[in-house]
Fold:
Amino acid sequence: MSIRVLLADDEAMIRAGVRAIVATDPALEVVAEAADGHQAIEAAHRYRPDVALVDIRMPRLDGLAAAAEIRRTAPATAVIMLTTFGEDDYIARALSEGAAGFLLKSGDPRELLAGVHAVAAGAAYLSPRVAHRVIAHLGGGDRMARGAAARRRTDALTTRERQVLALLGAGMSNAEIAGRLHIVEGTVKAYVSAILTRLDVRNRVQAAVLAHEAGLVTDVPGL
Structure:
């Protein structure tokens, strides 16, 4: 079965570009488009997409409010926020609204396809450039100090938990992590649950941010 995708952006040209990228992947299908937040919510309810690509800034109702309502009323739909370099201040709010990923509108098309597949499989996805922007705007202060603080938190995890966290931060789903570590998917789910609890983070995206901030993702072979 194909992964059903909703596109929500007030610029028709952006929607056309994203649709064209999605069309290159036979596993993906655009089932609806929306030009504002209200339309995005209505489309999510009507078409029940697996993934909603939602622009942060839209008229009538912005993407952040739309994402929150979609997550509340259509929880099976994972939301990826489409952002630009000028919208970093929205990142913390988007995280709190339950966004499963962030993609730059000007990013590599391959990242968009990878992001859709990742969140559809239950993973969190932060493209490398977005991860750096997220880290830079969460909490402020000195980056080295924040990195040290993140490492202190992740050092409290077991070796295996740090391995799982690093792969989670790289955008892998539970199934992909299981294959990489040669363990069963149920064990990965248990590790992820324990990691979220021990790090005191609300969701996989926040855990992924912490993995990037602690430098764990750069230590993963082959990434």
